[in-house]
Structure formats: structure tokens, C-alpha cells
Design goal:
- The chain is an alpha+beta fold.
- The chain has 2 domains: 121 residues, no CATH class; 82 residues, no CATH class.
- It contains 8 helices and 10 strands.
- The strands form 2 sheets. Strands 1-4-5-3-7-6 form a 6-stranded antiparallel sheet. The protein has a 4-stranded antiparallel sheet with strand order 2-8-9-10, covered by helices on one side.
- The longest helix has 21 residues.
- The chain starts with 5 loop residues before the first strand and ends with a helix.
């Protein structure tokens, strides 16, 4: 996993009642450039003064025009990310996914956040997780953070399937055995076109109206069934 810029642990499809968190490198492009002396210090200091969006654009232009810098930057990010994982004694069983300069993981350990001068910061905490196809869903405090999905889709689903998924996460976290009755009634009503149109927008990508989401409903039901076997 360490040699990949993006990586998802295919052995982890869901988890509940866990301490899940995301740690990101602070200003990764500048931190890595400074650590490995990829850019002049004066240029790094100039870039620090820019708003984040403008800084990202400037670094992107440098990468486009200097392939050696781009390769060394990406290599440096992977190297420091690997050292973060090793320093904190995280195993592959702990890592949910890697997103360039970010690590999504489950752990209750105190995290060592400074790796050779590159600082990592906690960006979020959750208690449950599900991965449907390539979409990662992190749940905590009545909110789902989606990864690997178009922002427009998230906006479209806010009042649709997102509400259904939040309800399922909440019930499973509370060991609520009524979740099976809830799932059964929801799917029956769904098949009978009992919900507003926005519930039938294809989840995650373009697909056949209504029928595409039946795969998601079946996946969620199977996850709940498997997880419920651990309750007794």
C-alpha cells in the first residue's frame, strides 16, 4: 500500500462501534518541499503567504512544468506518510484508506503527529464506516462524510438516500433490532414508488433511474445482517 498514492483496504468493507479518524499532512506540498529541499526556501516562504486555493494552483503549475519536482514531491509524500504509519505502529488492519497526504484509520492510540518536521493534523473522527463499491461513508454525530464521490451527488442525496443511510447507521450503532423491520418497510415502500423523486436519483454515479439504487439497498441490508450476528 505504501507505494500507491491512493489505496483502499479491500479487506475492510464496513465497521461499527470503532474510533475512526483522518490525519492529513499540514500544507503537504510545502512541508514536503521543505523537508526534501525540493524548492528554494524563499519560494516556499512566498507560497506560504498565498491563500490555500491560490497556493495549490501555483504548486500545480510548478509540477506541470517540472516533472522531476512533481515526481519527487509525490515520492516524498508517500515516504513521510509511510513513516507516519510505521511510527504509530499502524498495521494494514488499521488502515481503511490512503488519499495522497491523508490517512483514514481506526485506532485508539495516542498519535505521534510530527514526522521529520512534517506535521499531521486530525481532520475528522467517526464511529462507523461502510464502503459501497468505491464510495467510502464515514458516520458520526448524525453526519456522513463521503469520499470518492462527486460533490454534486452529495448535494442531490442530502434529502434522499442520505437520510436513509444515516438512519441505518444510527440504529446499528444503538444495537436497535428494529432495524430489520425498518429496512423491510423502506425497501417495500421504495419499490412501490412511495418516496419523492429525489430518493431515486442514482447513488454515486449515472445509472438507471430507481433500479440502480436497489444494489445499494441490498448491500446495506447484507451489512446490517452480518453486523447483527456480533450483537449476541
Amino acid at each position: 500500500m505504501h507505494d500507491k498514492q491512493l489505496w483502499s483496504n479491500q479487506n475492510i468493507q464496513y465497521m461499527f462501534h470503532e474510533h475512526i479518524c483522518e490525519y492529513d499532512m499540514v500544507a503537504a506540498s510545502l512541508s514536503i518541499s521543505k523537508r526534501f529541499q525540493l524548492l528554494d526556501n524563499d519560494l516556499i516562504e512566498q507560497l506560504k503567504l498565498l491563500p490555500k486555493e491560490e497556493r495549490v494552483k501555483r504548486v500545480g503549475l510548478i509540477q506541470r512544468n517540472d516533472k522531476s519536482f512533481s515526481e519527487n514531491l509525490l515520492s516524498g509524500i508517500r515516504d513521510i506518510r509511510k513513516k507516519f504509519i510505521i511510527t504509530n505502529n499502524l498495521t494494514e488492519e488499521d488502515i481503511i484508506s490512503l488519499h495522497s497526504d491523508a490517512v483514514f484509520m481506526r485506532t485508539k492510540r495516542n498519535i505521534i503527529s510530527n514526522i521529520e518536521g512534517v506535521e499531521f493534523i486530525k481532520k475528522g473522527e467517526w464511529t462507523s464506516f461502510m464502503r459501497y463499491k468505491n464510495i467510502d461513508m464515514f458516520y458520526g454525530n448524525d453526519y456522513i462524510k463521503y469520499q470518492n464521490v462527486n460533490k454534486d451527488m452529495i448535494n442531490e442525496q442530502t434529502l434522499g438516500l442520505n437520510l436513509h443511510l444515516k438512519k441505518v447507521f444510527e440504529m446499528v450503532e444503538n444495537y436497535d433490532e428494529d432495524v430489520f423491520e425498518y429496512l423491510s418497510k423502506f425497501q417495500k415502500k421504495y419499490l412501490q414508488d412511495g418516496f419523492p423523486d429525489y430518493y431515486y436519483i442514482p447513488f454515486g454515479k449515472l445509472g438507471e433511474y430507481k433500479t440502480y439504487n436497489l444494489q445499494l439497498l441490498a448491500f446495506v441490508a447484507n451489512v446490517v445482517l452480518e453486523e447483527s450476528r456480533r450483537w449476541s
